[in-house]
Amino acid sequence: MLSRVAIVTGAARGIGAATAVKLASDGAAVAVLDLSSDACAPLVDQIRSAGGTAVAFSCDVADEAQVDAVFDKVAGELGSVDVLVNNAGVLRDNLLHKMSSSDWDIVMNVHLRGAFLCSRAAQRHMVPQRSGKIVNTSSVSALGNRGQANYAAAKAGIQGLTRTLAMELGPFGINVNAVAPGFIVTEMTDATAARVGIAAEDMQAKAAEITPLRRVGQPSDIANVVAFLASDAASFITGQTIYVDGGRRL
Ligand SMILES: NC(=O)c1ccc[n+]([C@@H]2O[C@H](COP(=O)([O-])OP(=O)(O)OC[C@H]3O[C@@H](n4cnc5c(N)ncnc54)[C@H](O)[C@@H]3O)[C@@H](O)[C@H]2O)c1
Fold it and tell me: pLDDT tier at 2 (50, 70, 90 boundaries)?
């Protein structure tokens, strides 16, 4: 049971929404952050009608002033900041010669700068209480993926950030880990299928074929691992990136 306060970024849908639901069902009061708090309203209703606690906040994770303000607001309204899940993400895929500098910048800003800003804001609350859990979101694309120079670099950067924050924050009782999802069925992967002109179901079937476990992942597959890393059961794990990909890299 998590009788604590968790912040999940990019929580309006997909993996973030599933993570918020799981943390709430484990007993956490969940602050769900996304570009628009209105987009989180159905999620908040879902969590509350299951007996949980959830509050929605608008926040662009790449905006320093918004991030600093929202973490103080969450601590004020819910009492503390004990768990941070850095999940917000965007794609701007293209081959290098066609990738614009704004495609590069937005991906680096949301994933890497966002994780940095949110982790820095979270530790201001976690260090004084000498406890906390930060779970970052990397990807199998960190190992390299054609058409994703920006995203692969950001997701590899997340792994370096994770190891470094684990070293810096460990002495204060704060665990910092990452999950690296493989193919998970969300609007993000549906949009990729649409962009390359394949039906989402066909893309999922192709991905399942080359996955040792012969299926694609669901948001709950990631949420379960994030919830474990956010729990006391994982209290001696830090600095790790756990691939949750059905064995895709084997
Ligand atoms: N779906 C996959 O197959 C997969 C695989 C590996 C990693 N991931 C990672 O998992 C995370 C969640 O992915 P998803 O598939 O659920 O994506 P998604 O596109 O369904 O959801 C992403 C959420 O992030 C929010 N967001 C985007 N920019 C934001 C910003 N600047 N500030 C706050 N919120 C912002 C969006 O509004 C959206 O609600 C991302 O970091 C993604 O890179 C996904």
Answer: low
C-beta atoms surrounding 232 within 10 Å? 11
Pocket around ligand 1: residues whose beta carbon is below 6 Å from it? Answer: 9-10, 12-16, 34-35, 59-62, 87-90, 110, 137, 139, 181, 183-184, 186-189
Q: Would residue 250 count as lying in a domain?
A: no
Summarize pLDDT for 123-138 with one digit per residue, the tens: 999 999 999 999 999 9
Are 61 and 166 found together in one domain? yes
Judge if pTM exceeds 0.90.
Answer: yes
Q: Which domain holds residue 196?
A: 186-216
- Are 32 and 64 contained in the same domain? yes
Residue 249 located in a structural domain:
no
Distance 88 CA to ligand 1 centre (A): 5
Residues 108-136, mean pLDDT to the nearest whole number: 98
